[in-house]
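User: I'm writing a tutorial on reading structure tokens. Could you give me a worked example: one chain, its sequence, then its tokens, then a sentence or two explaining what the tokens reveal?
Assistant: Sure. Here is the example chain.
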Amino acid sequence: MMVAACQPVPRPFMPEEGIKGPKTLAPLVDGGGIVVLAVDNVPPPVSEALRRAMIDALAEQNIPAAASGSNVLSRFLTGTARTAPGPSAAGAKTVEVTWDLADRAGRKLGAGTARMSVPPEMWATASHKALAPLADGAAPAIAALMQEPPETRVLQPSEIPLHVWPVAGAGRDGALALRLAMEAALGRRGFSVTETLSDNGLVIAGSVALGAVAGGKRPIAIEWTVLDGGGKELGKLDQKNAIPADALKEGWGPLAYLIAESAAGGVGALLTRLPARPAGAGS
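And here are its predicted structure tokens:
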């Protein structure tokens, strides 16, 4: 049995260098930044110019913002424009944009509004700098909403849905065996393991590298990476060992069990380092 063959190795497949996580694991004051979405009721070039103007305006308020990408703590900003004839006869129009801030579940958190008189030529060129007042006037109100602490609670690891991808580098049989073993090991520790990736879940991705046989042993290295739903890396776990040269002759089953049992504990330790999430984010 493979279990017996591996027993003399101290702490088989325990993480060699521990858990590695990027600095982004530390929670941001604003909770994860803002994704600025398209502005309604304006031509696409104007919408894009207003998005860029708002991203710049939020940066001036020390609020990270972007037009794409998100995590479980991100909030989302949507603009709605209204136009009316301007006070002069030169063809200018009065434009008012209401910027609505919402959380990931679509719950409205507040809004900011800005307006300005826009000459026809300015509307036609759609310069983000020329249209900046429609963002600058609302950005302080949006920034204030970001500084208000949301209702949060720390989710227990068992409340975070986990989806295990087939493991790369192990062939078809090994990929399936390691995936099933990891799912079972996480389940035994009380984690919520899902067959498909949920909106607010995390992904456990594994990869295997097998070395050349030397002295009757074959080195094996396994890397497990925890990702959010958008593919952003949250942390990494490395395992290394040497197995008998013919260890995989009869399949991955027993070896996959040992690997997953050791790695599942490390995954749990990593999850405890994740920042608090907004109430309802795990539902």
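What the tokens reveal: Residues 12-22+154-278 form a domain with the Double Stranded RNA Binding Domain fold (CATH 3.30.160). The first helix runs from residue 2 to 6.
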